[in-house]
Amino acid sequence: MLSQGTKTCLDPVCVMMNVEPSDESMKTHILKNPDSTTKFVKEFDPETIDGERMYYINQCTESPDYTEAKIKNANKGLVPVRNWVVAAEKYGKTFDKNKPIVPETVKNPEPVRTP
């Protein structure tokens, strides 16, 4: 059985991986498969987090139990994972707020007049 601190840290990781956040999936997809998890972290694109998943991740990271000190107390090895989740969330929020503005295509543009 995983400690509460470990579950707290790995919940948003499961959500990012599109895996049900449960003890079994945390063990199977993350803890027992470090090479796959490392590859996922390296290749993860925070721009792919949709609104529903971002909301869930935000709820996790805003929790008073998601502080670096509490995660460190539960499992020192998960502190970098926690920091990565926080950074990915911040990047995703920033990107969402600052998406490039794409001009609407004009159906009948007026010709440019030269003097």
In short:
The chain is mainly α. 60% of the residues lie in helices and 0% in strands.
Topology:
Layout: H1 4-16, H2 23-31, H3 34-43, H4 51-61, H5 68-74, H6 79-97
Strand tally, please?
Answer: 0
Query: What's the average pLDDT?
Result: 84
Radius of gyration: 20 Å
Which regions have little confidence, pLDDT < 50, spanning 5+ residues?
Answer: none
- SSE topology string: HHHHHH
Strand content: under 5%
Task: Note the quaternary state here.
Answer: single chain
Task: Describe what this molecule looks like in 3D.
With 115 residues, this protein is mostly helical. It has one domain (4-97). It contains six helices and no strands. It has helices at residues 4-16, 23-31, 34-43, 51-61, 68-74, 79-97. Helix 1 packs across helix 5 and helix 1 (4-16) packs parallel to helix 6. The radius of gyration is 20 Å and the shape is elongated. 20% of the residues are buried. The mean pLDDT is 84.
Attribute tags:
single chain; 115 residues; mainly alpha; 6 helices; 60% helix; elongated
